[in-house]
Amino acid sequence: MASPIYHITPQSPPLFIFHGKWDRLVLVGHATDFYQALQDNNVESELYLQGFRGHIASFLLRGGAIDAGIEFLNRQVFTAD
């Protein structure tokens, strides 16, 4: 019950999620399930999956994740009602 997936409501804030597809410590299914739950509740969200990245490599070798996250935040801030 501590998982954030159980606390999503339509009032949840926008979320940007990035995850390595090869993560074996926290399986990618956690990210995809969480993203789907956000979508099911009409929460503005984006899932950025990094190919060829495991748990540590996804953070050390972020690739385009930072730019994608900044673009997501800019859309939230500058297109908010």
Explain this structure.
There is one protein chain. Strand 1, helix 1 and strand 2 form a beta-alpha-beta unit. This protein is of the alpha+beta class and 81 residues long. A two-stranded parallel ribbon has the order 1-2. Helix content is 38%, strand content 15%. The radius of gyration is 13 Å and the shape is flat. It is built from 3 helices and 2 strands; from the N terminus they run βαβαα.
Quick rundown:
This protein has helices at residues 28-40, 57-60, 65-78, and strands at residues 15-20, 45-50. It is of the alpha+beta class and 81 residues long.
For the structure shown, list the relevant keywords.
single chain, 81 residues, alpha+beta, two-stranded parallel sheet, 38% helix
Give the helix/strand layout:
Blueprint: E1 15-20, H1 28-40, E2 45-50, H2 57-60, H3 65-78
Parallel strand pairs: 1-2
Rg, nearest Å? 13 Å
**Helix/sheet category:** alpha+beta
Low-confidence stretches: none
Approximate helicity band: 25-40%
